[in-house]
Design a protein that fits this description.
α3 packs antiparallel against α4. Helix content is 28%, strand content 34%. It has helices at residues 4-10, 21-47, 119-161, 167-206; strands spanning 53-59, 61-62, 72-82, 85-88, 94-99, 106-107, 112-116, 209-211, 216-221, 228-229, 239-240, 244-247, 252-259, 271-276, 279-296, 301-308, 321-327, 341-344, 349-351, 354-361, 364-369, 371-376, 379-384, 391-394, 406-408. With 411 residues, it is of the alpha+beta class. Strands 3-13-16-15-14-17 form a 6-stranded antiparallel barrel. Strands 8-7-5-10-11 form a 5-stranded mixed beta sheet, with no helix packed on it. It starts with a helix and ends with a strand. Keywords: Membrane, Transmembrane, Transmembrane helix. The chain crosses the membrane at residues 27-47.
Length: 411
């Protein structure tokens, strides 16, 4: 009869016992089936887009194509100057009666800018007019006397032939006639002199009116009503030498100083690009007008005149600072070259013996085949395949492929 102890011992599992062959085979089959199920489930997970790869991105920077017409061979600084600028003054000394200009006002050629007190000039003109009138009256009187003398000479000529008058009387009449003829010529010349004097007096009156010599803009107002102005300095602080300053804005240009070592790079007619210090984002095209054939011994520079294509633009004013870039001419073979982009060299990898990069499109990575150009430091020039501003995967992993779902990782 089996005891209770034997019954309990029969329930223990012997771990050292070797299982039957059929049991081990079933165990390996179960493990293989479980692994296959896991692989299939994982593949289905990937196909459904459930796998997301974290990547870091960088932005492609657009650049100009090398050797373009916009390549600068030299930069220089200078100032805006006016080829036509005048400080307008009166031709005579006088007291200002009226000022008709203000700073910033546009004036036309011949426009009245100011008037001086014309009292003295008007008095001189009145005197000249009176002298002309007197000379003309004297000439008319002599002409009347000459007419009578010529008639007497003709009458006595007939009488002397008839021996009704003496020869002496006839000769006396002829002398009186000739004397009056000479007086008439003198009086006529005196009248002409008086007429010229009146014209000079008229010019004197006109000189009290100050006019603009050319069309332009008033940049300075130098006198006020009641002040004394003179074309010459009177040596005191109470006499003005000018009414105002006018600038022809159409004649504005830039004058720069180029070092002697670099003046060989500049040629007349060369294309330029000017940037004013006040407007850094405004690039004004132009060209070299002339190279002044003289050097500054102290500064070892040569002056260059540069024209601006922007004419009469109110933003350009005299004495404004400017930076001028002298541009080289475009080469024919590269004139139509398209601009490329710069991307880090680490973003470019080799796949199937091709240079490729992965561009972010929405939530996926797109594989782009590239045409590479120059190496610029840690960057590469991409001539085609990527546009400026596109996001490119930085250091693409080996398992990154076209269409992989990605997520931009925060640095």
């Amino acid at each position: 009869m089996t005891s209770h102890a034997d019954l309990l011992n029969s329930l223990k599992i012997d771990r050292n016992a070797v299982p039957p062959a059929s049991s081990r085979k079933g165990l390996w089959i179960g493990v293989a089936v479980a692994a296959a199920v896991a692989v299939i489930a994982g593949g289905a997970f990937v196909l459904r887009g459930g796998k997301v790869m974290d990547v870091q991105v960088t932005e492609a920077t657009a650049i100009g194509a090398g050797g373009s017409a916009n390549a600068s061979v030299l930069d220089a600084t200078g100032y805006v100057v006016a080829r036509r600028m005048a400080t307008v003054s009166a031709k005579v000394t006088g007291k200002v009666r009226e000022i008709l200009i203000e700073e910033g006002q546009h004036v036309e050629a011949g426009q009245v800018l100011a008037r001086l007190d014309p009292v003295d000039a008007n008095a001189q003109r009145t005197l000249s007019a009176a002298q002309l009138s007197a000379a003309q009256s004297q000439s008319a009187s002599v002409q009347a006397q000459l007419k009578q003398a010529e008639a007497d000479a003709v009458r006595l000529s007939s009488l002397v032939k008839q021996q009704l008058v003496s020869r002496a009387q006839f000769d006396q009449a002829i002398a009186a006639r000739d004397a009056l003829r000479a007086q008439l010529v003198t009086s006529q010349r005196n009248a002409q002199v008086a007429r010229d004097g009146l014209q000079i007096a008229d010019n004197g009156v006109d000189n009290t009116i100050v006019r603009a010599p050319f069309a332009g803009v008033v940049i300075a107002k130098a006198a006020q009503p009641g002040e004394i102005v003179s074309p010459l300095s009177a040596g005191g602080g109470f006499t003005r030498t000018g009414i105002g300053t006018i600038v022809d804005m159409a004649s504005l240009e830039v004058e720069v100083e180029v070092g002697e070592s670099y003046i060989g790079r500049v040629q007349p007619g060369m294309a330029t690009e000017t940037v004013l210090n006040a407007y850094q984002d405004w690039k004004i095209p132009g060209k070299v007008i002339a190279i002044i054939p003289a050097a500054d011994r102290g500064k070892a520079t040569v002056k260059v005149r540069v024209a601006l294509d922007a004419k009469n633009d109110p933003r350009i004013v005299p004495d404004m600072g400017a930076r001028v870039s002298f541009l080289e001419a475009a080469k024919p073979a590269q004139a139509q070259a398209k601009p490329g982009v710069l991307v880090p060299a680490s973003a470019i990898v080799q796949r199937d013996n091709q240079d490729v990069a992965f561009v972010i499109r929405g939530e996926k990575a797109e594989r782009h085949t590239l045409k590479l150009g120059r190496t610029l430091g840690d960057d590469r020039e991409v001539l085609s395949g990527i546009a400026g501003g596109e996001q490119v995967v930085q250091s693409p992993p080996d398992n990154l492929s076209d269409g992989t779902k990605v997520r931009i990782a925060q640095e």
